[in-house]
Amino acid sequence: MAEFIDFPRGIYRAAVFRDGKLESALFLGPADAAPQWDAVRALFEVESLGETERRMAMSGRSAGGLAETGPVICACFGVGLNVIRDAIASNSATNVEAIGKALRAGTNCGSCLPELKRIVHEHAHAV
């Protein structure tokens, strides 16, 4: 079973996977946060979902055309390394505070803050 809880937006999502197959899903929240039902419904037909597809099931969005997010750095909000690096490279988030504002990473439990600082430091020295 996988759960996603976004308290600020009032969203709760749960899904049950058995042997890699999506068995059931429950999405609760405001109407403006409704998932793309066709994208979720299509996942019930897939015999074995990979990690990306399982994450997409929880997001309620289609995986079509999306870039790979990379290893998850912020578990609270599912923010991946590639997304963080892209935000830094585009200058939309050049420090840990800006990453939090842009991506929400590091704004909940804070356990990813040391890793975010390391990523920012590495990028600053690579440029």
> Ranges with pLDDT <50 over ≥5 residues?
none
* N-to-C CA distance: 42 Å
Largest sheet: 3 strands, antiparallel
List SSEs in N-to-C order.
Answer: EEEHHEEHHH
Class per helix and strand makeup: alpha+beta
How confident is the prediction overall: mean pLDDT? Answer: 87
Count of helical segments?
5
Strand content: 15-25%
Number of strands: 5
Percent helix, as a range, is 25-40%
The best one-word shape is elongated
Rg, Å, rounded: 16 Å
Largest sheet, order of strands side by side?
A: 1-2-3
Detail the topology: elements first, then pairings.
Elements: E1 2-6, E2 11-18, E3 21-28, H1 37-43, H2 51-59, E4 72-74, E5 79-80, H3 81-89, H4 96-103, H5 113-126
Antiparallel strand pairs: 1-2, 2-3, 4-5
Task: Give structural notes.
There is one protein chain. This protein is of the alpha+beta class. Helices cover about 35% and strands about 20% of the residues. It has five helices and five strands; from the N terminus they run E-E-E-H-H-E-E-H-H-H. The strands form two sheets. A three-stranded antiparallel beta sheet has the order 1-2-3, with helices on one face. The chain has a two-stranded antiparallel ribbon with strand order 4-5. Strand 4 and strand 5 form a beta hairpin. Helix 3 (about 80-90) packs across helix 5. The longest helix is centred in the last third of the chain and has 14 residues, at about 115-125.
